[in-house]
Amino acid sequence: MPAMRYREALNQALREEMEADERVFIMGEDIGVFQGAFKVTQGLLERFGEKRVRDTPISENTIVGAGIGAAMAGLRPIVELMTINFSLLALDQIVNCAAAIRYMFGGQVKVPMVVRMPQGAGHQLGPTHSHSFEAIYLHVPGLLVAVPTTAADARGLLKAAIRDDNPVIFIEHESLYGQRGEVPENGEPMRFGEAAVRREGDDVTIVGVSRMALTAAKAAEELAAEHEVEAEVIDPRTLRPLDLDTILESVRKTNRAVVVEEGWPHGGVGANLAALIQEQAFDHLDAPVARVTGADVPMPYSKPLEQAAFPHPEHVVQAALSTFRDL
Amino acid sequence: MRPTRLSRILSAPFRLLVRALIAATTFLLARESRDVGRTGGEGVTSTAMEAGDSVKVAEAEAKAAEARARAAEAHTRAADAQAPGDGQGEAERAVERRPPEDVGAEHPLPEPEACRRILEKMALIRNFEERAGEMYAKAKIGGFLHLSIGEEATIVGTVDAMRDGDYLLSTYREHGQALARGTHPNAVMAELFGREDGCSRGRGGSMHLFDLERRFLGGYGIVGGNLPLAAGVALSCDYEETDDAVVCMFGDGASNQGTFGETMNLVALWNLPIVFLVVNNQFGMGTALERHSAVTDLSQKSAGFGVPGHRCNGMDVLDVHAAVTDALEKARADRQPQLVEAVTYRYRGHSMADPEEYRTKEEVEEWRRRDPIATFRRRLAGDGVLSDQDADRIDEEAAKAVDQAVEFADQSPFPDLASLYDDIYVYGDQVRGWHTVDERSPDVHPGEHEREAPEVSHELAEAGAAYANVGNAQERRRRQRGNGEPDEDEGEGEPGADEREEEGGAD
Fold this sequence. Notes:
Shape of chain A: globular
Largest interface: A-B, 58 and 58 residues
Structural class of chain B: alpha/beta
CATH topology of the largest domain in chain B: Rossmann fold
Oligomer: heterodimer
Number of strands of chain B: 8
């Protein structure tokens, strides 16, 4: 298995799917001549030309809307937005159109489109470029939501997203673009709704979303080394559909659960998962479901403040240990 | 007391607030009286009860009207008290709307067959909209209802200039567009009634009609929301190297949305085959054109983005037809997107819940004198193409078709409650059923319970339907009041108070 960076894996998925299907094209701000703000689309313009790799004006709502219209008329567009914060400008088109169109028109039409964008803090980009909004999109029926963590998942899930007939919100992470990982050679798309068990353990289940799956894995090593706690780490990989079965199976074994996410606490992924776990595995829980989230503040710029505003392994360790407290 | 400068400044927004309050109160009261009518009339079969109910309805309506008048009076008094000595409100409101006589040109009549077709379509739309208004008053139609009476020439002139392969996108005032495009009146009326045979299977309602076969890609409820979509459809025409083009219709109010400028720029940049048709009916809801747009010649608004504009007389079907034909030709052949502003007027309110405080009866009357159908009929008769008798027959045929549409819609079933979760997703490799993405109940999610999913969805739907008072309401009411055979599921005896509460709060 060749190792490659997360951004290269995404690039390869785009290339392969564009080779395979003439109807697939990509558009976004600075993805062509500039090769992408995070270089995910490097070389695509040269390979596929301006018809299929389209630089757009800075008009997020209209770019996404045009993607939806093109998808309704039979194409398979991929729209790149520069960050998830910018996708809020397109929230109208994503929620009122992409997610609703098939339903509100009685199933006459489909919207096979992918909206790709990175999220996450850590680069001192301040309060308008650093947030994590997977919970906003998780909220909306009609959308699929992918949050790949590894290079292999990035490639496999993006291929699946492009081939799927539903609108997919594909959330990458700014801090993961440079991460290396092994990628299987067969190039097959992966299935949505299949969580990955990153580490097996019997004592506590830790669910980590997006980059937080890596943070959770680091915390698990520390829990084993320092506290003799064997944590099971689960990366859901997609939030809609969600592989709740794998999470519940693990919780029924460990009787303890911690959910780790980078986004805000209220109405977050952890809030949702905590509700689902207590609804469906209440009798198996030995402690309340613990949540580790980003701080309930707009992301600050200053480095120490920013670092304090999103979860690190030590926060996860503390949360995991808290589930062992005497109640 | 003379108002100080400051109090004058403060009083203007206050007056607007008061007007909004009056409108809201009137709207709420209007709904209330409709709901009384609905509860009284639905599902009642005995003649005696019908008579009793209609008296009740009449009483309730009279009461509601009285309350409306009282509320309006009280608000006016409050406004006067707050804005002493300010007599400018009326004058501000009565700005004269631009008449369309200075817009457009005379055109020769097309072939007699085309003339007849155009008149038929306009008559169908007029009759359909009038009946829809009646059906709304009878509570056969829920939600909002936006009628396009007065805009028939703009609609038919535009759609008739399109080819079958062209795409049309519209706003939430789009019954006429669907009808002009050829969607059967039965399917449109059934959609308004929320029935399974509606053109969007009852999911969309009046604001969200759709007919893929006729390339009518929808009504959209967000002002300005359809422009980006239309650009995408035009992009697909270009991408697939077809000869098809797109027409995107929207109102004067949408020209103030960000999507307007964004979309104009994008289509001009990419040379897409698209025509934007601005239905300038003079009002964005209740805000007059000159109060919502700094540039009131809307045909000028797109030019700076690279989309040339042209203005036509929206009350003259031939002028609209000529303008759109020309624009489509340029968009299709020269890959030069175009904008056409049709200056027109809607006779009715923004929606059925509009007290029309913002314009005078005289203004509406003045525009009615330019009626697009009457004008076209006079022209046809004058040129000896179609006699008045022939035109009357066309109108009668249209009325008959609409009668049939109402009958059809009334017969069509409400969507099956088990279909609540249909068509949210395309099922396939990634989504194998709605239950894979919906974990709302412990019985639903785990894979081993998948077989039970349809039943659970039905229960959820049933609970929702009881609240919304659709389906077999009579039976449900009887059961919940406890004067029928007690339902096994419901337990015995009187239902809980909250249950009745829920029923009473329906809608």
